[in-house]
Design goal:
- By secondary structure, this protein is α/β, with parallel strands linked by helices.
- The protein folds into three domains: 167 residues, 3-Layer(aba) Sandwich (Rossmann fold), CATH 3.40.50.300; 188 residues, P-loop containing nucleotide triphosphate hydrolases (Rossmann fold); 79 residues, 2-Layer Sandwich (GMP Synthetase, Chain A, domain 3), CATH 3.30.300.20.
- Helix content is 35%, strand content 21%.
- It is built from 14 helices and 17 strands.
- The strands form four sheets. A six-stranded mixed beta sheet has the order 2-3-1-4-5-6, sandwiched between helices. A six-stranded mixed beta sheet has the order 8-9-7-10-11-12, sandwiched between helices. A three-stranded mixed beta sheet has the order 15-16-17.
- The longest helix is centred in the first third of the chain and has 16 residues.
- The radius of gyration is 27 Å and the shape is elongated.
- The protein starts with a strand and ends in a 10-residue tail after the last strand.
Length: 460
């Protein structure tokens, strides 16, 4: 990518629709309700053969304090980081005092600005295009982000920035693909606070109220020389409690982040241990049903899982809390043994340093590949120690084993009768693999296939 574009404007002018159009995917949540986007969101944009970074920002509002003021500050940072800003107006609605106010603000910044008049698919937008000249930002570019109209004109307006950055882009060295790390959990457990603590700046919005994060926000970061793509997600409540359309879209966005992640950090609320002891069962259990549902989703998708207990500074009996989490994981997620558990306080920073080493180790295990010869020697030892049971008077033979793929580690065993091998024996093999080759905390898949009979062709 040769340059970066920030999309700005007042609420509900179609910024996220334009973002989705440029990145070619429905990454940002779009709805008629104004103010849906709160955090700035980054993606890889493209028009024809031109590629660039693109940032979707929150709707600009004239606020001096509160959440809106923090959102405006985030937008200001996005504009400062960008090579060019696209100020989007709603041509159908015409100019508003808020458009004029923020056009003045953009004129005072050092970042070049291109004026974009959106929603010009009908004649009703023509008057708004003419009005836009009054903003003093040059000729407006009429487009329809929803229908893809006007992209050629936008290409021409962005071309000078692509040319100016062409040399620096060609000089960039190829780097390894970043680790995709998603941070998930129920609402208000401290996911955004954790991400801000990790990267060392107030990059995503935080606050005491739940539901601040709506989009899954991805951030580029580096940990000890390794490129990391951090994804902050909206809080996930039980499906029965999700009633609003926006929350439903946010949850779907979070599930999509899990599917595209490599390692997933599930954040728990450590303060529940004390509340549980005081008001409920008294067992100090932190891991709730919804947490387990999210954990199962992660393992079903084949992703490496890390359990992160936040607000650890509020926990009194820490030994009992850790024991409760471990016991519940062992009981409810038997298919994934020894899931790493890290406890910390994202607010104070205490213990946060222990998270990323666990993430990197889980990533290495998730990518581990074992030699075929080593696997078959191990299989022979396992069969000798505990032979497969008889099925209809005949012994099930395990002939050969190989690793089909990594991410997650997936093994194939060729056997005489795949359908006759009991689940208990399959678990025996899976647990043996984990113990023998040190594969903790990641999903491990074992596939049984019928081996070819070398004498079948001779009898035909």
């Amino acid at each position: 990518m040769s340059f970066t574009v920030a999309i700005v404007g007042r609420p509900n002018v179609g910024k996220s629709t334009l973002f989705n159009r440029l990145v070619g995917k429905r990454l940002a949540i779009v709805d008629n309700e104004p103010g849906v986007t709160r955090d700035r969101r980054e993606g890889h944009g493209r028009i024809a053969d031109m590629s660039f970074g693109v940032i979707d920002t929150a709707g600009l509002e004239d606020a001096k304090d509160g959440l809106e003021a923090v959102m405006r500050d985030q937008t200001g940072r996005a504009v400062a980081d960008a090579d060019v800003a696209l100020m989007v107006i709603d041509a159908r609605a015409g100019l508003t005092p808020l458009d004029e106010h923020f056009a003045g603000w953009l004129r005072r910044t050092e970042t070049p600005v291109i004026l974009v008049a959106n929603k010009c698919e009908h004649r009703t937008g023509q008057s708004g295009v003419m009005e836009a000249y009054a903003l003093g930002l040059g000729d407006p570019i009429p487009i329809s982000a929803e229908h893809g109209l006007g992209m050629a004109d936008l290409f021409s307006a962005l071309a000078p920035f692509a040319e100016a950055n062409e040399n620096s882009a060609a000089a960039e060295k190829k780097t390894e693909a970043p680790l995709q790390l998603a941070v998930v959990g129920r609402p208000n457990v401290g996911k955004s606070t954790l991400i801000n603590r990790l990267i060392g700046e107030e990059r995503v919005l935080t606050g005491p109220q739940s539901g601040i994060t709506r989009d899954a926000v991805s951030l580029s970061w580096e940990f000890e020389g390794h490129a990391v793509r951090l994804v902050d997600t909206a809080g996930m409540r039980r499906k029965a409690k999700v009633r609003k359309k926006l929350e439903s879209l946010s949850v779907k966005d979070g599930l999509r982040a899990i599917r595209f992640a490599q390692v997933v950090v599930l954040v728990l609320d450590g303060s529940l241990a004390e509340a549980d002891q005081d008001a409920r069962s008294g067992d100090g259990n932190i891991l709730e049903k919804q947490d387990l549902a999210i954990a199962r989703q992660v393992t079903d998708e084949g992703r490496a899982l890390i359990i992160a207990i936040n607000k650890w500074d509020l926990v009194g009996d820490r030994k009992k809390a850790l024991q409760g989490v471990g016991e519940r994981l062992e009981k409810s997620l038997p298919q994934v043994r020894d899931v790493p558990v890290v406890a910390f306080s994202a607010l104070t920073g205490g213990g946060v340093g222990g998270l990323m080493p666990k993430v990197m180790e889980a990533y290495r295990v998730w990518n581990r590949r074992l030699a075929t010869g080593v696997l078959n020697r191990w299989l022979a030892e396992m069969v000798e120690r505990h032979p497969p049971p008889l099925a209809k008077g005949r012994r099930v033979k395990l002939r050969y084993m190989t690793q089909a793929k990594t991410r997650p580690p997936t093994f194939v065993v060729f056997t005489s009768r795949p359908d006759a091998l009991p689940d208990a024996y399959r678990r025996y093999l899976v647990n043996g693999l984990r113990d023998a080759f040190n594969i903790p905390g990641v999903p491990l898949r074992l596939i049984l296939r019928k081996g070819e009979n070398p004498y079948a062709k001779d009898r035909k």
